[in-house]
Design a protein that fits this description.
The structure is a single chain. Helix content is 53%, strand content 13%. It is of the alpha/beta class. It has 2 domains: 11-143, 3-Layer(aba) Sandwich (Rossmann fold), CATH 3.40.50.2300; 149-223, Winged helix-like DNA-binding domain superfamily/Winged helix DNA-binding domain (Arc Repressor Mutant, subunit A, Orthogonal Bundle), CATH 1.10.10.10. A 6-stranded parallel β-sheet has the order 2-1-3-4-5-6, with helices on both faces. Helix 4 (96-105) crosses helix 6. 33% of the residues are buried.
Length: 227
């Protein structure tokens, strides 16, 4: 288990960002703070995962819009392999469903890229010490995706049970893989079925949950505790 950092401890950081100018600027800015040491950087998720395995940083700054594997998928994989590594999403994406999806994937903080450097440095320190943080600019939007207190009732519980009951055991299994960000090909391999069959299960899930795409299905599954 990772030890709690003391105030004077240096936080090791890896930056995963595809834009070189942003990446270099972040590294230069963050290394000005005595409590932060950027030990590596990566322009894509797969390289980032390899760097994380090599350096075992305290904190990862993760962009969402990465080429190939996106930041959400990368967050899930990192948390599976290195559960003690703290992940801060640093992005320009402001939609509430993306915030919830990122936190549901295991991210410890969600920051927008216009965050002040001093604030980001403190977020890094606090997250390394076990805190969670959501940028105030998106926190009110994100709250709209959580059940309101007056809705937490027997009726809501029954609605969740009804949504779960509509799905077959196999569809629930597929939904778990959707939440992990897996593709139809990966799901087919996991379940030892054809890609066509995996795709059919996904289409059925989207229809039964009344959502338009895989991300919305994953968000709904997390938000409503369907799985």
């Amino acid at each position: 288990m990772t030890e709690v950092l003391q105030k004077n401890d240096v936080v090791s950081v890896i930056i995963v960002e595809d834009y070189k100018l942003t990446r270099v600027g972040l590294k230069s800015t963050l290394n000005e703070y005595e409590h932060i040491n950027v030990v590596a950087e990566a322009e894509d998720a797969q390289t980032g995962i390899e760097m994380i395995q090599k350096y075992q940083p305290n904190v990862v700054l993760m962009d969402l819009g990465l080429p190939g594997m996106n930041g959400l998928e990368a967050t899930i994989k990192i948390k599976e392999n290195s559960p003690n590594t703290k992940i801060i999403i640093l992005t320009s994406h402001e939609r509430g469903e993306e915030v919830i999806a990122a936190l549901g994937a295991g991210a410890n903080a969600y920051c927008l890229k216009d965050i002040a450097p001093e604030t980001l440095s403190e977020v890094i320190r606090n997250v390394a010490d076990g805190a969670c943080w959501v940028d105030p600019a998106v926190s009110s939007v994100a709250l709209n995706f959580f059940p309101k207190p007056e809705n937490v009732s027997l009726i809501q519980s029954n609605e969740v049970q009804d949504a779960r009951a509509q799905l077959t055991e196999r569809e629930l299994e597929v939904l778990k893989h959707l939440v992990k960000g897996k593709s139809n090909t990966e799901i087919a391999k996991e379940l030892i079925v054809s890609v066509h069959t995996a795709k059919a299960h996904v289409c059925s899930i989207l229809q039964k949950l009344c959502v338009d795409d895989r991300v919305q299905a994953a968000v709904k599954a997390i938000k409503e505790n369907i799985i």
